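Fig. S4 source data, part A: sequence.
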Amino acid sequence: MLEVQKQKRVSPFSSKLFSRLIAFTAAFLVFALLFGSMFQMFESISMQAMLRMNEEFSAQASTISDSMQSIINTLGIQMFYISSTAKLRKSTSLTQNERVFALRELWQYAMSGSMLHSIYVFNPKLDYVYTTDNDYMSASMDGFYDQDAVALYRQRSPENRMRLYHRTFRENGEDYGSEWYSYLVYEVTASGKTGESAVMLNLNADWFHEHLLNFQGENYVIVSSDSYVVASQREELNAMSLSLLGRISEQKRGYLIERLNGKRTICFFSPLDVNDWYCLRYVAYADCLPGLAKIRSYAWIALTLIACALLSALGVALIRVYDPYRRMTAALNRTHEVENVQQAAEQVEKTVTKNMETTVFLLSNALVRGDYSKAYALLDLLMAQREEPYTILAVLSSAYIDMYRVRAAIESGKTSMAPT
């Protein structure tokens, strides 16, 4: 049998399909990466601009907070040193009239505005607590109705002096739901020793709500690092604000993008100058960055469609490769069912897709043997594969030249395998 070295040839359509798929996929990935980088850059620039605007609002809230803190400090020192309070703090021999007169004067201070709820005076010499709250009675420290206040008094230290404590009023362990800010005033010596007597101002939480966010807007929240809401323009934002507090405390200032009621929402946050408070502002992403939001939506749609097209093209390519392989494997698995090797060879030949050089070589063999029906069948196959006639003729001529060389070598006394 003549041995002719055949070079494997890939179908031009399959080769072009795979090369185009690879090039298009690479271009798609490069475009997606560039778009993502550019989008992140523009988003970051826009967010930083919005953050600077939020810090201006935070500065306004911080100024208000400083003013309120100054008012509380001044009032606390005034209440501590006025004569009525001094008598209640230090005296051990007050008459009933003197005590009533002193408490009435403090009560007038407490009722003069919406700021104060009540005033407590701690007398350590008598182990007694006086209160301006008409609903309750002054009593010994152990029998006083507000034991949380007594606990704060007993935890006096230089660091805790004149500091706001947010708490919920409880009587005998029962929560009444009234929010207060307690402000404890006492003396501290140069050596750091705390005085025994003290005055506690109980400030209404509503006073902070009304004054801290007393400007136009509806999405501002002020939270404390101690995990409570100081003031809020919308109660539905409180739960999310507290849930974000951990990350806010780590970053101190910046923004977070979260989902609120199913919508992407930006939370800008900045610290205030006092009390470890943070000013938060919530803005819907689409309202804050309408242009970028549209670009983002359109880009996702376009990238999704392109990805689907790539996957479809990849599926077509895999089918064109896998289907012939599957048919060839099935034919090979059926070779044990045929009666002889010739039938197996014919079955494989019908199943396997041959390249152009192999088909032309079989065509030349059919012509030499005079099997013209098979020759025409192979020629029809080449035409169906859209092979150019001059290409067929060139390969066919090459096959005849190879056979002529072999014949000439044999007549010259050489073997058919001898080199030319």
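Fig. S4 source data, part B ends here. The longest strand covers residues 174-185.
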